Amino acid sequence: MKISSLLDGRKYARLALDLRGFLRNTITLEQSKQLLSARLQNREKNFLSLVRKGIYGNPGSPYLKLLQLAGCEFGDIESQVNRDGIEAALQKLHAEGIYVNWEEFKGKKEIIRGGKTFKVHERDFDNPFLESYYQVRSSGTRSAGTRTQFDLRHRSDISYYYPLVLAVANALDAPMGIWMPTLPSITGISGLLHYCNIGKPVSKWFTPVDENQVQASLKDRLALRYIIYAGRLSGAKLVKPEYVSLVEAIKVAHWMADTKKRFGGCSLTCFPSLMVKVCQAAMENGLDISGTHFFGGGEPFTEAKCREIEAAGATANPRYWITEIGFIGCSCRRLPAVDDVHLFSDSVALIQHQRKVEHADISVNAFLFTSLMTSSPKIMLNVESDDYGVMETRHCGCLLEELGFKEHLYNIRSFAKMTGSGMTIIGSDFVRILEEVLPQKYGGAVTDYQLLEEEDERGQTSLCLIISPDVGAVDENEVKDIVFEELRRNTYGGKLAAGFWSQVNTLCVKRMHPKSSSGKIATLHLMKR
Ligand SMILES: [Zn+2]
């Protein structure tokens, strides 16, 4: 796209006008409860409206082709939803081949169903009824990110979750900071806008990457400044981002400790791996951040990470978030699994299906998402994100349950694959080795270890175990032996992979700081596909 079209004056004028409306409205806890209850009551109606307008009324919709192939009319879906509910209708559609997997959804793969092949582009899944200002990218660790539209009506619909989320965590009064990347990642700027939208403007915005590191385009640089200054002109308190690199967590820890001292509390929204860094920096430097709150998601929330956060006396409040869908769930911290979240079933419907993971002798209960929010940037009908986990209805007695959010999700992981020398293993099998076995043996933190998937000039993929120089002396051969030994304990193809990798030297050990894309330190750094 040319810069001239990116700087479309009319779009910016419209954005300024909408921003004024967006920021003028302050959503209270009471309004949040009312709107979410109403959305829960209207979920069937909203779903059918999206299917009718966004799919049957949208000739370019890839879902329409699948539905036509299956001979499924709108009336069929409508009567089944009215009779058996959304989830039963989605299960039936899935059985008839109406679903798309993540690669198809991203337009990276053709859709093949019933002997027919459909070429799709990721924009074919855009919600055709959305006013978008420009495209943003998700901070996906598994890919180069997905193109998503940025729309303030959708932002506002999501903002309604925020008062509730903070109330459940008892953090409504604590000043909020964020340590999240700037554009092109949407995470930082959307956090800034959501908190402002509920009358709790972010006091401090730290960004773990600067614009040069992420090679932000001129459009993104301008858009960021434009949103902040246009927002300020409307009277909103929007702070500018301050670059704090991943090795400077101590700066964030200092801010949290000072804020706690001055105001009696503090919260920080960031990726789980960064929460760990802040807590460790606080502990190592004798800073008191006890009683502070951490909010965030975007990567698996593991027990090891949770332990590190709680060791500093802080609380971790996981969120489940996918940029293309929005806010999927948040924790009430009353339940045994550390990553347990209530599913926001007012805006998303979720079904599961058992599927085999390619090249790995394992099957997972994969999640299939359907959007119910009319402002959703993407139309999603049984979209298989590459996540899986457990879904169950459980009584916990919290405010979220009281409102009608009764389904819980936990043990949420990606089934993205790790490959080396032609042998593939499900990546999450490495997580325990990197987060528990190695730190226990050699010391250091969860974020000091990483498995990097690399491809050389000849297309050979290898795996590199990265150990931060902060960890002391390490015998590299011994580390490899430990990894192989642990892998062999895995029933799912681990023995075979360990056997291959130990022979052909696929696994190397490097002493360097773990790599980060978009500010996260993923335990598994998958090659961009
Ligand atoms: Zn609960």
3D architecture notes:
This protein has 529 residues and is an alpha/beta fold. Strand 14 and strand 15 form a beta hairpin. Strands 1, 6, 7, 8, 9, 10, 11, 12, 13, 14, 15, 16 and 17 form a 13-stranded mixed sheet that branches. Helix content is 39%, strand content 22%. Residues 1-7 and 137-147 have low confidence and may be disordered. The two termini are 23 Å apart. The protein binds zinc ion (ZN). Residues 332, 334, 342, 396, 398, 400-401 line the site of zinc ion.
Short note summarizing the structure:
This protein has 19 helices and 23 strands. By secondary structure, it is of the alpha/beta class.
Distance between the termini: 23 Å
Ligands (ions, cofactors included): zinc ion
* Number of DSSP-assigned strands: 23
Low-confidence stretches: 1-7, 137-147
Shape: globular
Helix content range? 25-40%
Radius of gyration: 23 Å
Strand content: 15-25%
* Largest β sheet strand count, sense and barrel closure: 13 strands, mixed
